[in-house]
Structures are given as structure tokens and as C-alpha cells.
Amino acid sequence: MKRFDSEDTIVALSTPYGKGAIAVVRMSGSQSLSLVNRLFSRQLKKQDHRRAVPGEIWTASRRQMLDECVTTFFQGPQSYTGEDLVEISCHGNPVIIDQIIQELIQLGARVAQPGEFTQRAFLNHKMDLSQAEAVAAVIEAKTRRGLACSLRQLEGGISQTIGSIRDELIQLASLLEINLDFNEDDIQVYEKKAVETRALNLLEQIDHLLHTYDYGRLYQEGVKLLLLGKPNVGKSSLLNMLAQKDRALVSDVPGTTRDYIEEFIQIEGFPIQIVDTAGIRETLDMIEDMGVKRALTHIESSDLVLAIFESHRQLDRDDCRFIEYLKSNVKGKVPFIVVLNKQDLGRDAGVLEHLHGLETLLVEVSAKTGANLPELKDRIKQTLLGDSAAEQEEIVITNARHKEALDLSRKALQKFVTGIQSGVDEVILASELRSALDYLGEIVGEISSEDLLNHIFGQFCIGK
Hints:
The chain is built from 16 helices and 12 strands. The chain has 464 residues and is α/β, with parallel strands linked by helices. The protein folds into 3 domains: 118 residues, 2-Layer Sandwich (Gyrase A, domain 2); 119 residues, Four Helix Bundle (Hemerythrin (Met), subunit A) (Up-down Bundle); 172 residues, Rossmann fold (3-Layer(aba) Sandwich), CATH 3.40.50.300. A 6-stranded mixed sheet has the order 3-4-5-2-1-6.
């Protein structure tokens, strides 16, 4: 994000662009009140703080009325940005919106950059950096659970937890610094064992937070689920059943799906991208062969593979080739579940015995009747989550930047513990504690570079 003078008054549309009943034009900066008063039919005063005032917006020349609207003034620092802020609620017609914004620009405002409103809120200490990032996460949340995690972060849940750990680190660092001052007098102001115990406790707290990341990432970013199998085993039927709609064409003719099909659904609260692929088999059909090759390229980017077979027929040559492919290219690289489809047509004991050799979860279902579909969904959730204890956590790490900072802080703190156990010089120990503090400070923005801030806020929408 290009650097601009924070003294500027900025303006942008805060609601999605397009036609609608209502749109909100937002303006922030020291000139907000005076600029809106040059267009508004009523003169707003500072006493109108947080009052929704109806009226009309005119051109600066007062020759043309642009729209009837409701204008609300928020006096800084009691506003979202910490500055004087005005919100103009007008009709959601792009022509009206553009005219209002252009009039304000001609009077001296400038168009806000992506995330600049929230960046000003951070710089004016209305929120810390983790809360600022949560604003974008709330907007982008794909599930109720993901939204709940983001809202908890916005409320300051992560800030409070990180703040508590930092306070304890500061106390430990203070003890070391004081002890260094008395070093020449051979006075020990702390017991090494007690300090070690406190540091180990902090390591446990950081580990506890890190343990929630995989769970939080799945809810925040979603999961890619790949359907693989030979032609006509019911991949498309299973996709339709999971999506609860006829998304893929179903036919008894093998090779109906020539290319991959994507569908976005939720399973047990997880946002999931299901990819239905062309059937894996040897073929002389050039188009079908291209589809098979495309299907296999999806494996590395998938979080979970459903390897689908038929339960009622003996394994044929294509099945055997697919099994060998799973062993050499999927097993140990990407988690996968064997799905025995068409349970409603019966079961071949030999198939079941042979597939157990893949040493992974096996679920028998019927995509036609929906039999055992709840069990399959539960198995998918268990495979992705592993330890589901994270579901009960109030504070969940969902941000990769936060995880990286916690990892680095943990490493510094572990070096401190190892050092105090082996009698390392206290100057080095104090340095490790300061490093651990600095890394945690990066999460809440106590320590942050301009490049980092530009990267974070540059990913926001313009009106936020």
C-alpha cells in the first residue's frame, strides 16, 4: 500500500458496489464534518455525535440535489478510526454513489486505500494488530464456527491471552536484569528453579495455542477434498449426495466425467471444496486421458482424498492399478479414506479384505440411498481434525502470521529454558527472553514494520 499523509481526509464506499436499497459512503479525517456540511441540507454540529440525521445531499454549488439520505457524525476519538468520521447512507445506485464521492473529492477529500480506515484505527490505538486482522477475517468467514473464532479475536481474546504471556515474560526478564545489576555483589535475586518452572509454564501456554492452529486454519481457509476412483464407481453420485443437489452429471456410461468438477459445501461446519475427477483408468480417448492427468495433479494440493471403489464387484485391472497408485503417490503424503460405494447392491468379501491392505479408514456407503453418509462425514471430520479437543477452545489461532510468531517465540523461550538448565550466561538468557517478547509483540502490533502493516492492510477491501 502506498504511503499517504495520515492528516488527509479519506472517503470510500463501505458497502459492496452495485445496485441495492442502501449504500454507505464513509469519510474519516479532521475535515469530515466541514466537508459534509458543504453538501448536506442540514448543518451537523459536534453535538450531533452518533445521531442519524435525515436530509438531502446536494452538489457543492447547491444547484442539484443528489439524493435523500441519512447522515451520521462520529466525533473522534469515539469513532471506528479514532478520528472524526461521517457515514452517509444513501440509495444504492452506483450513479448516486459516484456523484457523492466525486463531490467530496473535489472539496478536498481523497479516495481511501484498501484497509486504510482500519489502519487508522490501529494507528490511533482503537484496536491492536490482531484485532485489525480480525476485521478482515470476520468479513471473509465461510462458516459459523469460523465467524465465531474471528469475532472472539476481534473482541480481543487473542490480545488478552498474548498480553498475559507477555506480562509474565516481562517479569522474568526484569528478574534477570535486576540480577545482572547486582552481579558484582554476588547477590542472587531469584531462584533458578522457580524461574525455570515459570518459563516451562509459559511454554505450555504457547504450545496450547499452537495446538489449535490446524483446527482454526481448517475453519478459516477451508479444505480441499478430492474424489478419486476408476470410472463409474459413483464419484459424481457421491458429490451430488454430499452437496445435496445434482451438481455433476450421473450416467451408467463409464467416462462421463471428462474433466474435474468443483463444488463448495459444508461438512460438519467445515468449508469444503469437493473436486470430482475423471475416472482413473487406461484409455485411448485423448480427451478422457487429459482429464485423468488433470485429476492426478490435484493430489498434492488436496487436504484429503476419498478413494472410491465398488463394494459389490470383484476388483478388476483398473482397480488394481488405482490401488498401486494410492500406495506409491498418496499414502504417506496426503490423508485418504477408502470409500466402498454401492453398498445397496451387496458386498464382495474379497474386495473388503484386499482394501484393508491399504491400512487406512474404510467406510461403506451408498451414494444412491444415502446409507452411512453421516458416518462418512464424521470420518472426514475426524481425519482432518485428529484431536477434536480444539473444538472446545475459546481462543483459536487461525492466522498463519500469528502461528509463525508463536513458533519463533517458543523457540527463543525454549533456548532460555535450556540455557538456565545448563548454566548459560545471564546476558544471553536475558537476550532470549527479549526475543520471545519481541515475537509476541509482533502479533498485537507492539513491534511492527511499515512493510508488514502495508501487507496486512493492503489485503482489506477499500471501504474498511
